[in-house]
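Morning F.,

Quick status update on the modeling queue. The single chain you submitted on Monday has been processed. Sequence for confirmation:
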Amino acid sequence: MQRVVAVTCMLGKQGLSFRGHDETAESHNKGNFMECMGLLQQFDPFLQHYIPPSNSTCLSPASQNEMIECCSKEVTANIIKEMQNVKNKKESKMFAIMADEARDGYTEQLAICVRYVIEGTVKERFLSLTELRSFDAKSITEALERKLEEDGISQLKCVAQTYDGAAVMSGATGGVQSLFREKHPEAIYAHELNLVLCHTCRGITEATEFFSLLESLYSFFSCSLVSHHKFKEAQTKLGLQPRELVQLSNTRWACQLNTVNAVLDNLPAVIDCLSAINTATAVGLKTKICKFSFVYLLTLFKDLLSVVAGLHKYLQKETIDLPQAVAYKDAVCDFLKQKRSDPTAADIYARAKTLCEVNHIVVEEQLSGQRQKKKRMDDFVVETACGVHRSISTDDEQIKTKLLYPCLDRMVTELENRFSAVNVALLQGIQAFSPVSDNFLSEPHLAELAHHYNIDLKTEEVMVARYFLTRKKQAGAAPQDMISVYNLLDLILDLACRPVRNLLLGEFLI
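Structure tokens below.
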């Protein structure tokens, strides 16, 4: 049995499948579990001489499933034990919940994760996949509550909840976050901060079409081996560094920046390859990318995405510091607002024009009085709305007002709106824990946060914490972030600062 458990744990740790398509004695590949047991038998004298009863070999599919279930329960139990913090009674029992839907074939599932702090370290743990019978807010909320009840953590204090931006999850009235807060009023909806940048330009038609075209380019060169080999040949012929095009992602902003950089670095090879292939699809793609508007958007989004790339990475960190994230966001917004200027517009326009000249792309000048003919569909059955596609002139003034400024404004608005999801008073209370804040350990700001969490905050406790941290600063050991503040307060826990420390603990989970 020890060997069966060891193989089960190893396969689970490596994330490998257990069973094969054919586990009969004649099969040459019985699956990872049976093959591992067979390998052990070759070197293990005990297994070589052991003949198990026919009704209890512990190797059948049912036995494998039972062993997997046992391991799963043991892992979950350890997570719950750590959350309940049996060994360390001084920790406040708080946690945050994260959930997202995940489809497995025709089965809709809910992936549930928890976030908590143990010994000054933020932990994020996957808890379970729960099957959903229907995909509505009430069913999802009931599934969350049922899971918390089954695992025995419903009695702990849930101080934050995080889901994606779908209405069924984030709706302020009938969404999961609002229904969940009926039973857990302290659970602040932290919103999808890590997804805050993923759809900033969705409302800009040209930007949407631009990223769709980048995805088409990736598909063209990755789905066909012939096209891929010709692309590699074009890179070699032009003396370019070999680099693959990158697929876009709806949830990872870094992929969008990587995609833009990959096309920019390989633009000569892309054009040369499309010209050589000369199929209908290749001609269509070449026609679209050999336009000034496309090259301009490449240049524009390289600049904009580079500005926000650092913020996006920070928002995905497990140990994210929310006040620092807000300060980071404010700095990015200020920088983007500064780029809304004529010098910036002129610089991007000049670089785009130079790139067109290098790649022999003709910059067509559109006359100001020129009008585009309307398309008529008199001889066709039209099932969707049709009309004239908006044409952007290559004039620098129109490019600036139709592309640059709308994209900048959309990004700034999206950043500011998403971060305003947390109540302003609560956010000020959270910022009061940041050593770089002007309101560091300000009692009026902490009082609002303490009231929300039902924590009895006393003036003398705040004074002790402030005095202790001031002495540390004078001694040259000032805390640089909230994790440092939390760990320092841990040293004087028995004096007076447990409520202050518990407030700080709740902040880590938002």
